[in-house]
Specification:
Elements (H helix, E strand, L loop, with lengths): L1 H18 L8 H4 L7 H9 L32 E2 L5 E3 L4 E11 L7 E6 L7 E5 L3 E8 L8 E3 L20 E7 L5 E6 L6 H7 L3 E6 L16 E9 L9 H4 L9 E4 L2 E2 L1 E6 L2 E8 L6 E5 L5 E6 L2 E9 L2 E3 L4 E7 L9 E4 L5 E8 L19 H5 L2 E10 L2 E4 L11 E3 L5 E8 L8 E5 L5 E5 L14 E4 L4 E6 L5 E7 L2 H5 L3 E6 L1
The chain binds copper (II) ion (CU).
The site of copper (II) ion has 5 residues, from loops.
Keywords: Metal-binding, Oxidoreductase, Signal
Pfam families: Cu-oxidase, Cu-oxidase_2, Cu-oxidase_3
Family: Belongs to the multicopper oxidase family.
Length: about 500
Amino acid sequence: MKSKLWITALITSAVIATGCSANNTNSESEEMDHSNMSEEEMKNMEGMDHSNMDMEGMDMENGHASHTNPLELNNSTGENELALPPLVEANDGVVDITAQQGKTEIFEGVQTDTYGYNGSFLGPVIRVSEGETVTFRTKNDLLEPTTFHWHGVDIPGEGDGGPHQLLQPGASEDVKFTVSQGASTLWFHPHPEGATAEQVYKGLAGLIYVEDENSKNLGLPDEYGVNDFPLVFQDRQFNENKQFDYQAVRNEDGTIGDTMLVNGTLNPKLTVGKEKVRLRLLNGSNARNYTFKLNTGDSFQQIATDGGFLNEPTEMSEIILTPGERAEIIVDFSKYDASSDVALVNEADSILLPFKIDEQKTNTVEISETLNDYVVTEEEKNLPVTKKLELFGMGEMVYINDKQFDINRIDFTQKQGETEIWEIYNKPDMMGGMAHPFHIHGTQFKIVSIDGKEPPAELQGWKDTVAIEPDQTVKLAVKFNNKGIYMFHCHVLEHEENGMMGQVEVL
Ligand SMILES: [Cu+2]
């Protein structure tokens, strides 16, 4: 038995080592010397039941390789103008949001069965302001139960839309709350136990923009669809009939695809002015990581993280977003002209979104040098660790503190309004392990340290999802402003469903 395990591990390791060079996994797995395996590593290996491992997912020939060996993405031909989600604001304090099924023409002349909010595919951008009391009037017109989860929103647990708040087909629910956080780009998606990944995959995802007094006075581009664009990145795998067949392509370590959709548009291009343009990026994929950069090699400015503005615009040449994460960037198109070849590309230079520059459209904006007053205080830096989490495993055997999700078990309690330090360690396995995007519901947290060091400038801002690399330890300052039960989990949606999730009750 042991020798069989060895062989499985070696084969798997070899596949990963040859396949992951383009991805940002740690290099240790490539250098790992199996003859020097430590006692502990042996133990870990025995603890994992490799016989149940989805070896199909490791196969590079069958079209759905594993998370650590991504399928290559298509290059956008730019033949379709990017779809712009409808912008919705509260009407008499109410925003109607209906989950529904429909058909969408993603490929010319073909109807694909899809899910959407208030439409056949994806959802609107809901714009709210800090201090506003709003009712999200949710309705489930699907033929299966769903929930409405507001990712990144500071909201009482009963309205958070986690697995406890299941809405049956035909049912409605009013979620009333007061927006009590600053300007940010948040999102919403379903969260029913066992069906989150598939429902998101089929198209249930929308955005929430929070504006505040500050955000209006920073000189930032803020004309929706003119110089301020949402960009929802999702990779998908279509079958020969151009349908989503989620169960057929599901990968227990994260379902990825070879076809890029941005705001649901295949082969998109975006027409922009010869001016500074704000792009709000959401990695809305089930599992794929993106390294966003410009094909010109030019840098751009990052202005916001998941939950708010950075203190100042930060020059970046690339941004990595794992599933669930957002970033806002400013690209200065004034230095290009109509003949320029400019595109947003992914790490291996696959073209995600080519830009067409309309020279008639210009605008000079003066962006403030100071955007926010975010700070990790000395007190927060000196707080003791009061919650320890260890992420471990892969595929169907993913654990937090050796446990898998149980809706009837509360893993932690925390007092409302009290800041605690959560220390999260991503424990590598025999094969090196993989990065887990760790997300906490109902709050925005601060990254205090990564492996004991101050986080890089682009992570010094409010976050609700943080990528934790194998063998990395991340300390977070976490405070809940509301009470209730909240999920914390890996945002690789298949990991979440396989049990890499727990519950904290805020009292
Ligand atoms: Cu994970």
